[in-house]
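SAMPLE LOG
Freezer: B-3
Tube label: C17
Construct: single chain, 250 aa
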Amino acid sequence: MASGNTAHINFELLELAMGQSEARCEADREIALVIMSGECRVRSGDQVFELKRSTVFDELASAVYLPPSAEVSIEALADSKIAWCAGLADLAGEPRMIRSDEVTSKIVGRDSYERTVCDIIDADFPAQHLVLGETFNQPGKWSSYPPHRHDEDRLPEEADMEEIYFFKVNPESGFGFQRIYSPEAGFDRAIVLKDETVVEVPEGYHPVSAAPGCDVYYLWVLWGEKRILAPFDDPAFASVRARLDAEATV
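STRUCTURE (predicted):
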């Protein structure tokens, strides 16, 4: 089972066969349910939502947001995989559906670091701490590049946010890489990204690359006290950023 945890985030990939159901209630966490594939019915109180998606590479996401203490049951109408994204919270609220036509999609970067970024729960959504979305790397391309981090609260330069990534790769035999490093904290590691890899990023710079011939997708789940997206570029790549910005204006 694909899962991951940081100090404030829990991630789990729920896999339900057609006809199976799952019931839960988390008193101290807000939840985002994001459909990866299949079809399911989500019930919370007197509200009913339906999520459906063939694959992450074919359709934009739909999702359900649940506030803390919301009782939820998930019934699989087909073999389904659902991302359970939970973050510590105590904000009262109502369950809400995020339809695929409400997901904003944009192209970020260009050339070898161009990627598609889709915001599912953005900073304007009425959640307390969670922000999440999806990134699509085409074969041979990079994302989270130039490398950035979000480790410290020192606005406007940077806001502290924990993160968990969940990866899908097409074809499933393909791969990508992620480097997570921090000169300040003294660590530097490389991770081979295979289909359904989960990576925890409590701190550090964390660029991603897709191998030639392989599409790499990842769901990113962020938790922050202020829910402000203010990533900080690695100063060692300042000349790269300056060159890329200069080339973009030509």
